[in-house]
Design goal:
- The chain is mainly α.
- The protein contains 33 helices and 7 strands.
- The chain has helices at residues 2-16, 37-55, 64-77, 100-134, 143-157, 166-184, 194-202, 210-224, 243-261, 268-282, 287-291, 298-301, 304-326, 332-347, 352-369, 379-386, 389-408, 411-415, 433-443, 458-468, 480-496, 498-508, 522-530, 554-560, 578-594, 598-611, 616-628, 632-645, 650-662, 666-679, 684-697, 702-716, 722-734, and strands at residues 444-445, 448-449, 452-456, 472-474, 512-515, 534-539, 544-548.
- 44% of the residues are buried.
Length: 739
Amino acid sequence: MPREKIEKKKAKEARAQPKPAKGLPEQKVIAPPPKDNWLGWICLAGVIALSFLMSFHTLVDTDIFWHLKTGQIIFETLRVPHQDSYSFTMAGKEWIDSQWLFQLLCYLLYRMDGYRGMIVFAAVLGGLTWVLILAPALRPKKYFSIILFGFISLLCASLRLKLRPEILTFFYIALEIFLLFEFRRGKRWPLYPLPFLLLFWVNSEGLWPIYYVIQGAFLLDEILMLPGWGAGKYLKRLSPLPPRQSALRLLAAMAGSIPFTFINPYGYRGVLFPLTLLREVSSESSFIHQTISDVQSPFLRLPMLDRSIYIALIAMSAVFFLLLFYRRLFYPAALLLWAGFLFLSISALRNVALFAVTAGALSAGMIAENLDREILPLPALKNKLLRFRPAAAAVLLAAVIFFMVDVATSRFFMRNGTHARFGVGALETEYPIGGGQFLKAIMERSGKVTPLKIFADAESSAYYIWMGYPEWKLYFDPRLELYGEKFLETFVTATENPQEFMREDRKWDFDAVALTSFQNRTDLILSLYHDPQWALVYLDGFNVIFIKDQPRLASVITEHRIDFQKGFSGPMPADLTGKWLARDRQCLGYILMILGQPELALPEFEQGVKLIPEDPEMNYYLGWTLNMLQRFAEAKPYLEKSVKGDPKAIWPQIQLGRAYAMTGDTDRGLGIFRSLLERNPYELTACMDIAKVYELILKSPNASEQWQKCWEIYQSNPRAFQPQAEEISQALKRLGKMR
């Protein structure tokens, strides 16, 4: 009996081995790899650890606080919201919250361990995602190729590794592809968890239709292998299961998943909701597509290093498909998925991470299916290259260690523009924490919070929902699917145009205004500052708050209105040092300059330069402020450092030219202005500065001719140069050149 069992076991194993398709040459088995498997295990552990570290950083997502508030509401009421209650503009409108499970999970983690619990969860999920991607590397053969793909895909996805529902989609994609590749290896159990994976996906993120796309692509593979199609002449059958059996099982898994799609709080409307999202962002002519950076081309928006890594991943995976094609190892499912997600990533920056996760998981799965097949066209060359695998693995490990240090020191996050900090918490340079806490403190009377209708920008509105709901209601928040494209356009116009804001104010009667992103909203901030109907009550490096002067808020305004004549000291954010504190001081100094307070802005920039002395932008702001205070000699060294650090920036050169001209070095000043005009004949500010030097310093007769040139530049685009029109016309009248 034991002998018979052994023979049956051997026969079963023989049947499970993949057989080459008819008419195709038998592939050579590659030479055994050198005994460097230990290095592969270290690289594998390094990439997984790096995926954990890249997600282990302070909160940076704009939406996270309204997610957190929604999770709290679900926990306390045991109901998922069906109507909007956060805004006063869309109150009562149907709201399909497809991310409710993510929100509830976030709030439960917050209750247990605050921000730390939430961030650790994101980091663990990131680590698990790349465990699934790198799972085929657990076998020693060809470990280097799998780990290299995993490493590049991780770097490519790094910009989106933050606490948002999307990270669950990354995990779900990696898990589904892993299970389907395991099924192709002849295992039955991987199909059983798939419907439950869909159940979680449908209730935690709106991209769940990807589930059917991935499974449908793998089903297509099996259908093409059926005898009736004749594709077996060209495709290599790598699965030990008969194609008919595999196709039927996959089809049964897909059909069995359909009922799970409808297990959501909104029924069929929840199933149709992803179509709404797709319609909003798919059209390049839509206002959402033109306004939101996440849905614009990655080649325009990605930082240079991230763009290079993205291109490298595209090239590596494309070459891999070509090598498979050369060896007649066709993977229709993988190729379709790769091409589809590549198209999505080229169309929108936010999809780059989806492409990276999918490409990494597919590449690892295909490599694992060909552990004993030669893919390179020259086997002899491959055997020689194997000798260098330990050295290549050592270089890869060194790169992993470099990025681990880069992430742990937070330089990685500053360089890619997320401005996160390694560790836990929420920074006051990313959220209006100081402003929100201040507003709540001054609005609390006898244990109750005064109701407010707040006009806030998208960057800060979610935090005010977290701080003040249900007493505080918002004009707008980041739930674009609720507000729609037309309302978004009105909102953006209102934040940039004071006249449009006043029209909306007359319509909705705002109580408070809270704004960030000062450089894009200076016109509105200046308008509110000079409007007696509004009182500036709070200002820091991230947030400015105005309250409308009305009887029920009169006592608050009397007590907290900011009067710069009596002095002002910007609130210092808690737990910030280095570049984060410098960024806060720079933003505060900038808005003080815009409000006409260079004396108060000066110490902010001086502190910023002490924190980051070589930063060109900070040196420019300090030099600009000193010029405003007519301390031109002191401004020169800072402006020189700024121009040296960023030679292409125009405004530091203009300020440096002014500093030279006002300290007696007019030739150098005029040289800078003329150089700018040579490079850009329509640089009106440089033209006007030359005219001012001629008229006010040199008393030259060339002044009138230069002002006339400025007038000609103005006439080339009157709308763009409207702010300078009055000064030019007054100068020409003064010199008798215009009546």
